[in-house]
């Protein structure tokens, strides 16, 4: 379960960032010279759904991976600015916060 949740979280972080890009392009087209709202009508709900999915997965990850409250708040806050979910996911990956299995125990005596 932990591995599947972690993979879903990473996928949601990437998808949420991609939907931000699509929504920004849609907004540029809507308010730009073409003045066409189709991009916003399509990608607005898609982005909204991915935003909610990412937020729910953050809460699940916080519980299963035992994230601290500040880390959880930062992860949730990263869903608001464009592309910040990618930054958080990479940061958490580098710090080992997305590991699916505990690290093996190290021997107490140094190897010879």
Q: How would you characterize this protein structure?
A:
There is one protein chain. By secondary structure, this protein is mostly helical. Helix content is about 70%, strand content about 0%. It is built from four helices and no strands. The protein has helices at about 1-30, 40-65, 70-75, 85-95. Helix 1 (about 1-30) packs antiparallel against helix 2, helix 1 (about 1-30) runs antiparallel to helix 4 and helix 2 packs antiparallel against helix 3. The longest helix is centred in the N-terminal third of the chain and has 30 residues, at about 1-30. It is elongated, with a radius of gyration of 18 Å. The mean pLDDT is about 90.
Overall SS class = mainly alpha
Amino-to-carboxy terminus distance:
38 Å
Rounded to an integer in angstroms, the radius of gyration calculated over CA atoms is 18 Å
H/E element order: HHHH
Reported for the largest beta sheet, the result is:
none
As a percent range, the share of helical residues equals 55-70%
Low-confidence region ranges:
none
Overall form: elongated
Strand residue content: under 5%
Count of helical segments?
4
Question: Mean pLDDT across all residues, rounded?
Answer: 89
Assembly classification: single chain
Can you count the beta strands? 0
Supply database-style keywords.
4 helices, mainly alpha, 112 residues, 69% helix, single chain, 0% strand
């Amino acid at each position: 379960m932990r591995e599947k949740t972690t993979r879903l979280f990473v996928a949601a972080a990437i998808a949420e960032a991609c939907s931000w890009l699509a929504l920004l392009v849609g907004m540029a087209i809507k308010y730009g010279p073409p003045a066409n709202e189709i991009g916003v009508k399509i990608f607005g709900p898609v982005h909204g759904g991915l935003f909610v999915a990412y937020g729910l997965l953050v809460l699940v990850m916080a519980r299963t991976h035992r994230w601290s409250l500040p880390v959880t708040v930062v992860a949730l806050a990263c869903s608001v600015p464009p592309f910040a979910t990618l930054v958080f996911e990479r940061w958490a990956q580098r710090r080992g916060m997305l590991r699916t299995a505990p690290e093996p125990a190290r021997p107490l005596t140094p190897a010879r």
